[in-house]
Amino acid sequence: MDTAILDLLADIGRTSVARLNPAVTLTAETATARREQVLRTIRGTVLPRRLEFTAANGDCLAIEVNSSRVTDVFRVRSGLVPDFETEARENLAEKLAQLVSDIAAAPGPMVLISLQPDIALEADDVGITFREISDACHSIELPAEPVVSIVPDHEEDDLTDTSDGLASQFYAGTERFAQGRVQINKSDGEAIQADGTCTPEQPMYADSDLLKQFAADLAGWDKDTSAELELPQLIVLRPSGGKGTALAVLHDGSQISAAVHEARKLGAVVSLWKTLTEADA
Amino acid sequence: MSIEAALNTAIHTIPDCIAAGYVDMETGMLLGTSFASPEDATALDSLAIAVANLFQGRGVRGFEELLRANGTEEAGQSGFGEIAVFSKDRLNIFLRTQAYPDHVVCYTCRNSANVGLALTKSHLSLGPVAAAV
After folding, report:
1. d(CA B127, CA B133)
2. From the CB of residue B41, how many other CB atoms can be counted at a distance below 10 Å?
3. pLDDT tens-digit profile of B111-130?
4. Which end of chain A, C or N, has fewer beta carbons within 10 A?
């Protein structure tokens, strides 16, 4: 055997490191490069796999891929999941290209987990080819990379000193993904406003007693953690396993906004939190 | 493997994780810890009591009941199993163990942590940590 091949194999053996978990970090630094990595991953997936791309802010795109074709979408960064049963092929390709571009535009680094599909593929799950998605991506411009400027340090701002109230902004911002939402006063648990499933006679309506108890729980939490954790805080309560319905609570020191949402929309919650706190800082 | 060793292993796999603790909510006490600085140890003590009160608070349980009554919980789940707390400079993750629902594993990460990765790796570490009890 060629000694060069033996040397190559010896090098591989010497430098190989066992992976301790299924997560792989995609280290591309720009949105364009991240999109290329996502497309390359789709192209390189031959056997049926469920691929989950998770951005640094928690946004996630979960797709089923087989023979370099996307055959289903399970989780998207925001908005509706494309319907492979009813939508036209060209529309699906455009939507998949948009989803791939959206996740690439989210903050890096991105993490990829490749899992066994939950169910066996149907014979007619032909999917949308890598080439169709890649072609559709050409017409989607990615946001320019932010220019990072180094500025002198300022004294740390007290984030609780917001005139417009982070809880109010959070309440407004959760409209696009929350099933129901309610805003209450921290001091007495009185409801200020409510919407969706949190309104009277709706399934997630919390009466005044429950809201007062919840405000009291958070007051106790504040007291216990005042030396360790600063306000504002985002507290996300999720079911075990991350499936089902979750509760996202923003607590700014004077008011509390709670949004009932699908647990899989954590990425949207975290993204909103980062947007609000970065704008407020 | 001891709880401390399991927590220490978890800290090294979770991004930007600086401290970990294993909390018994029945008593609000830490059964095991792993941390780098004494400040983190003090913080874990406070968080152990705080998270026990929060998970078991009447308001939080009331919302769990609402979800349960409306069938929006997955079958076989017992309320909120995970709390993630984002603050100015920290991400704290609290996970109930399946084997012992009154036990919670707490991870403290720097705010710079990749949230998705931190949650994923926290979940992956839960089994070995719970097995060490």
Report:
1. 10
2. 15
3. 889 988 999 899 999 989 98
4. N
Span A158-198, pLDDT tens digits: 433 334 789 999 999 999 899 999 999 998 899 999 999 99
Q: Which of B122, B93, B123, B104 is nearest to B11 (CA)?
A: B122
| Segment A205-263, tens digit of pLDDT | 999 999 999 999 999 999 989 888 999 999 999 988 777 899 999 999 899 999 999 98
Residue ranges per structural domain of chain B: 3-131
| Strands (E) located in B1-133 | 17-24, 29-35, 80-86, 90-96, 103-110
The superfamily (CATH) of domain B3-131 is: Dynein light chain 2a, cytoplasmic (3.30.450.30)
C-alpha atoms less than 13 angstroms from C-alpha of A110 in its C-beta half-sphere: 31
pLDDT 10s digits, B7-45: 999 999 999 999 999 999 988 889 999 998 888 888 898
Q: Do B85 and A229 touch (CB under 8 A)?
A: yes
Which one of A215, A231, A270 has the shortest CB-CB distance to B115? A270
Q: What is the pTM of this model?
A: 0.61
Dmax over Cα atoms in chain B, in whole Å?
A: 45
Integer-rounded Cα radius of gyration of chain B: 14
Q: Which of A57, A222, A228 to mutate to test the interface with B (most CBs of B within 10 A)?
A: A228
Contact assessment for residue A38 and residue A105, using Cβ atoms and an 8 Å cutoff:
no
Spatial distance between the Cα atoms of A7 and A76, rounded to a whole number of angstroms: 45
- Write out the H or E segment, with its range, that includes residue A277: helix A266-280
Residues 28 to 47 of B: which have CB under 8 A from any A CB?
A: 42-43, 46-47
Residue A210 is which amino acid?
A: L
Cβ-nearest to A113 among B47, B98, B120? B120
